[in-house]
Amino acid sequence: MGFAVKVLSQFVRRHSTLEKIRNIGIIAHIDAGKTTTTERMLYYAGKTDRIGNVDHGDTITDFLPQERSRGITIQSAAISFDWRNRGEINLIDTPGHADFSFEVIRALKVLDGCVTIFDAVAGVEAQTEKVWKMSKQIPKICFINKMDREGAGFSRTVKEIIMKLSTRIALVNIPYFSLNPQTREQKFEGVIDIINKKLIKWDINDPDSVNVVELDPIKDKYLFDQLSKARESLIETLSEFDDTLVETFLEEANGDYLKLSSSVINRTLRNLTLDNTITPILCGASFKNVGVQPLLDAVVDYLPSPIETKLPDINKKNFVMKFDHSKGLIINNNNSMCVALAFKVITDPIRGLMVFVRVYSGTLKNGFTVYNTTTKKPFKIGKLVRMNADVPEEINHLNTGEIGVLTGSSIDGNVSTGDTIISHSMKKDGLKSFKKNEELTLKINPISVPEPVFTVTVEPKSLGNKDSMEKSLKRLVIEDPSLRVTVDEETGQTLLSGMGELHLEIAGDKLVNTLGAKVELGKVTVSYKETINENTSVESYSDDKGYNFSISLEPLDGSVKDISKQSNKEMWYSLGSDNNYLIMEKNDKYDPENEWLLQLTYDSIVNSIVSSSIVAFQKGGKISNFPLHSCLVRVHSNWQVPIDVEKPSEILEITRNVIIKSLNKLVTNQYSVLQPIMSLNIDVDPNDMGVVIRDLTSDHDAIILSIDDRDSVEKAEDNLLFNKIAEMQYLPDDVTLNLMKTSTGNESSKHIKAEVPLRKMIAYNKKLRSLTQGRADFQMYFEKMERVTSDHLKEIIDDL
């Protein structure tokens, strides 16, 4: 298996009370030390008897061949372990590279808390800012890593956290440096525990050596002074939000910051962390095995259990959801209903399809029949396992709040990412027990899939390889829904689209080397779209058959987030990830809330129209057959369906023809081509800034939005309130903070923000490296789709 796992953990099922469970994720910018920290957590928790190394390619959570060869995390990995009998931790290590943002998105959907890791040298980086915003509703703790590195700045990084991430903080510990009397060099060796008033030191040559020291106010005057100031600041911050703490401080501690008990501080800090008022901060150096045990303590002390987390977002607004101290979440007052979300699907070469699920309520059991409310089909669970990275541990059931994996041939083809699974907690075949089947329509609102922007062609090496290619592509998309497979109507070519060049490179590698497809991949191109510029409508009716559909198409400018969908006159439905939507106007004759007269359900009718719209839009526009983007399909309120119609396919065919007929009424100049516009962030040495900006504006059609000092506290992009809070926050001495205050602009690295067409950014990484001799770093994110001007349209079409 490549690593040793404690024998008992493979066979003994640990039963934890709900209060002890922690479903957490580790998020950060690439190379901040996520996987390195995870490896130390597993070692100190007794899950392994050796520490994996990213550079050696032998880590537990990065087990894919592509991950070990590149030294980066590509897919989120799940692992469960116990920490000192205090907490049962289900941990997900997520990727840091922007191309794999969907892995982060689906992990965040099922997490209750997060550990955000920062590189103490680099500070708050672009991907960290992005993921922080994505996880804004989830309680977090921060770990400032790599404190042993030259240029590490604890206080500078804390200031950036406050100002750039707009959060109040609480220093749980601060760095301790030993001083070499001969060389006068400082060496990071431990942390000062602010709450428990201790110094914790590690021997970097012995990962098991930890020395806890009581600080003496006379012998350790400098350290004790730091502790006293930090503790005073911590208590003052907590007191702003908790009047009970103020009373305890005055009455029981007599106003002495050093006498207030650690239990009182921890209780208050936990409560304020759970409601996202305060973010606890710790520090360490994971690679040197420093600071990891206090971090694990903080996970248990401050992050929520499954009964302290936010309620899941479900489609049934009339269902009551409440937390029970012993049973966990109860939905619709049904103690017997188990509800789980499938958030990840992978293919294992030995075990086949494996579906990761989070159980939100009830108990999921081996051999039970479950119901997929997304596909509306039942299936039987084979085996249940808990994953230790790539090593499964068979279990009999998953309780509320737990994360595990469905396996077995029965799940193949029956469940995908984002599906909601319902079962009876006690009866093997208890689906009939649910109230009038209404509970079988319950859905946890689906995982949002970002829009793919890069495309490659995929061709079978021979005609005989076509079937296996199509099966492999289907499996690839089941595992990673941020990939999309389409067929060019004009050329017949199969197209694979993804989030970036690296994303497609990894997908191609997996397609060939893991799934065994005999294919050839073309060069990376940009995913263009078309949209309509004007409204168009068609009515289709048949008196003898009893059909009537009046459908209009409208262009949608901007994001649907800008549009109010709250109306009792119409309902909105997404048509996938191309910013296309279906609007069903209310028809009083067929109101699903009143007596329903048709044999087909309202959902079946809507699903048929959704499917027909997607198919019609994929046929593309009239300029270059690019799929349609940012369009609205409106079904007017006079729609009519025969009472005796039984097959949704009849409605699908009629509505698809109406939509295509409506599109055909538009002429070519009533369509526009859309191109992806990216948000670009570049950190560059001042000496290289001029050549980088000239290259961006001349060769890449970039619009420069801002140029800032990357490390300048004064220019951090947050509001004045958090700037002021950061200036008032007590922080220990930090030479990098002092340098920031006195440095000239020429000495600080520069941060360039720009918007740039994606078609101009293919292979930009190599070019930037060449221009700056490797001294620059960039992150690129999809920002919007934008109409292509006529002078650029010919250039785009000629390049196809």
From TrEMBL:
Can you name one GO molecular function term for this protein? GTPase activity
Source organism (scientific name)? Maudiozyma saulgeensis
What CDD domains does the database record attribute to this sequence? EF-G, EFG_III, EFG_mtEFG_C
Question: Briefly, what is this protein's role?
Answer: Mitochondrial GTPase that mediates the disassembly of ribosomes from messenger RNA at the termination of mitochondrial protein biosynthesis. Not involved in the GTP-dependent ribosomal translocation step during translation elongation.
* SMART domains with a match to the protein in the record: EFG_C
Under InterPro entries, the record lists: EF-G-like_DII, EFG2, EFG_II, EFG_III, EFG_III/V, EFG_V, EFG_V-like, G_TR_CS
Write down the HAMAP family for this protein, in alphabetical order: mEF_G_2
Q: Name one GO cellular component term.
A: mitochondrion
Q: What is its main location?
A: mitochondrion
Q: Which NCBIfam families match?
A: small_GTP
Q: Fetch the Gene3D superfamilies from UniProt.
A: 3.30.70.240, Elongation Factor G (Translational Gtpase), domain 3, P-loop containing nucleotide triphosphate hydrolases, Translation factors
* The protein's name: Ribosome-releasing factor 2, mitochondrial
Domain (Tr-type G) ranges: 19-307
For binding GTP, which residues are annotated in this chain's numbering?
28-35, 93-97, 145-148
Q: What are the record keywords, sorted?
A: Elongation factor, GTP-binding, Mitochondrion, Nucleotide-binding, Protein biosynthesis
Q: Which Pfam families match?
A: EF-G_D2 (PF22042), EFG_C (PF00679), EFG_III (PF14492), GTP_EFTU (PF00009)
Q: Which GO terms describe its biological process?
A: mitochondrial translation; ribosome disassembly
Recorded family membership: Belongs to the TRAFAC class translation factor GTPase superfamily. Classic translation factor GTPase family. EF-G/EF-2 subfamily.
Subcellular location per the Swiss-Prot or TrEMBL entry: Mitochondrion
